Amino acid sequence: MIEYSKKEREQHTRSKRILLSKKTRRIIMSSSEIKNVLDLLTHGVYIIGVKYRSKINGMTAAWVNQMSSQPPMVSVAVGKSHYTSELISKAKYFSINILSPNQTELARKCGLISGRNQDKLQEEEITYQATGAPILTNCAAYLDCKLSHQFEVGDHILFIGTVIKANIKNQSVLIFRSSDFFN
To answer: What is the CATH number of the domain that holds 73?
Structure first.
């Protein structure tokens, strides 16, 4: 645990960059500073595909992780208010489409437009595999998943899926850096 002198605490408090909680003696950073650091994390870029009844939706995501090797399981964090959260909860299946570097515009489109009133994938070639979730024909790779668990985590829902089928089409993948998409 880092200990600060009274003078150091006062300097940090005045600068408003780092605050030290007197009760817990832990460093507390401003939320904007934390966001700036989190924006430096790099991720792959994915389109989460879901089909429920006749509704097909695709949403851009970066928060995707492998959770287990045996059985193969992955997770994706989706905002609670997102249409995709609603559809995955109902359908119980989803796909993770790993994008190629030439799919930046698709990633932007599926990340900025809601699928509630518009079919974001209507111009894309899609196929369906084991679960019936939409798979982008031109993606670098995909994971076809059956929903195993879901948890509310802060302002997101963490969906954990068991991988039913996977395929690699291209080894080159699109990497997400916040500054490439939002600045």
So the answer is: 2.30.110.10
Degrees to nearest 5, angle at CA 125 with 63 and 42: 20
**Sign of the C-alpha dihedral computed for residues 167, 141, 110 and 124 taken in this order:** negative
Q: In 62-140, where do the E strands start and end? A: 64-68, 73-79, 93-98, 126-128, 134-136
Tokens found for residue 81: 């208010």
Q: State residue 142's pLDDT score.
A: 98
**Same domain, residue pair 160 and 131:** yes
Return the SS3 of 151: strand
Assessment of whether the complete model's pTM goes beyond 0.90: no
Environment class of residue 162 by beta-carbon count within 10 Å: exposed (0-12), middle (13-18) or buried (19+)?
middle
Helix/strand/coil for 15: helix
